[in-house]
What we know:
The complex is a heterodimer. Helix content of chain A is 81%, strand content 0%. Chain A has helices at residues 5-26, 32-37, 44-55, 58-100, 107-148, 154-172, 174-203, 205-215, 225-244, 246-254, 260-288, 298-341, 343-346, 352-374, 381-404, 410-430, 433-454, 462-465. The longest helix of chain A is centred in the last third of the chain and has 44 residues, at 298-341. Chain A starts with a helix and ends in an 11-residue tail after the last helix. By secondary structure, chain B is mostly helical.
Amino acid sequence: MSLPWINIGIVLLLGASFIGAGWYFSRRVAAADEYILGSGQLGVAFGMTSLLAFWITGNTMLAAPESAYSYGIIGAAGYGLTGGLAVVLFGLLSKRIHQVIPHGKTVGDYYRTRFGDTNYYIFFVLLVIYILGMIVTQGIGGGVLLEQIFDIPYLVAVPLTFFIVIVYSYFGGFRSVAGVAYFQVLLILVVALVVPPLVYLNVGFEPTYEGMLQNAPTSLNLFEPAALLFLFGFAFVGTGEVFMDNTFWQRAYAIRRDVVVKTFMLSGIGWGLVPLAVASLAFVALGFGDSPEQINQVAPLVAQIYGGDIAGWLFLVAVWSALCSTTAASINSLATLVMNDIIPDIKEDVADEELLAYGKYLTITVGVLGLLLSLPQILTMLQMLIFLGVINAAFLFPIIAGLWWEKASPQAVLIAATAATVVGYAVYFTIGDLQGVIASGWVSFILTFGISLLRPDDFEWQNLRDVGKPIGGDRE
Amino acid sequence: MVTMVWVYAAVVLLAVLAVLLAGPYLGLYGDRDPFTESANEDRKET
């Protein structure tokens, strides 16, 4: 079998530049805290690129067109609006996070102090499942993309991708991941701005619309119940992901307090445009009757058929950059979560250099685990996101209530999160996937607030203010 | 029809979520200023 060396060459060239940049940004990392949060003083520019690089995932580039192909106009709008809205909503919380837990470093710092060890360990286990799931979706997406569209065998593509990501994440942790993300986002945005117009210039808007009207008229229906369910149900998947994911909490802590809300707001609005742009490629497939072997490969297929080789390669660069940035951020997120929350529990009085070394070992461990779990292809990306959305929705209301309301009790949160997960998956498997996410959200909301009203707690906010220590001096 | 019931359930819960998150900015959480004083301090003062 002959390998497509030009495509492999593009991946290797990009990978080498990511590793070089990762090493460059790692030079100033001397302490464990810097491995977790960098300087803790990110401004709007690096804050936005760091957020966009993580949140413009392989899912955004591949599953957004998948949802547009499955649900039409509403699918594209739903993906773009709900993911962007989720970041905007988290922005509303970010200033409060800075206020109540000014020296926190992970979501675990908040959740454990606020709701106690029992709640935290349940949260931690489900969070690990979620982050690993996120890493696996990127791994599978990358492998399938490189194999089906660019002829690089799956078993070569996945290890190659993980090797590059692990190496540059290993050097400087958050600092390397956020630094490399700056360049990755520029690449992604350029491609998202260039490829869809290039394709539409070749095929024309009117023939696409006429084709959709003839081949897939329901894709143009704005009141199709299944599409509306996707639009509103998927909002909980996106919002739950953002609120629970340690990656967003890391960035909320890492961005300066005076610009944190603005940074999240601008990132949310900017993010929404990327999936809308790439999802529009799916309309061409619908209009001209192209059916990909796997639905999540619809956008790269259209880019290659109607945009030519250059558009195909550009799309490869963008999707692969998105996959790398999200995988790196997720690996760093899980490794530093264990490093910050679990290692000090297992080993008392651990020295800072030792903790930093643990962080690096954990980066390799998480990365290799992600690689091994990605080798078998389990679900499509969208299916995996919705499956994990049940867990995300279960923790949405405990997180919000705990940040604002001293009466939100650990007992209520324990019952709410557990019952929401169980009920959510029962509905998921018996009625429908998005219905499971919605049910999980409702159970979480009713039980968190209902039980806390009946048996209120009286949380002392000072406990959260006492968590952690400032990085390089007080940030207040 | 059944699908639309789930759609309405999602819309209502999203509205609840939006109100919860926008509440402090709309002054719905009483007279405490979440960004300058902690809730406990407010409660002790009253």
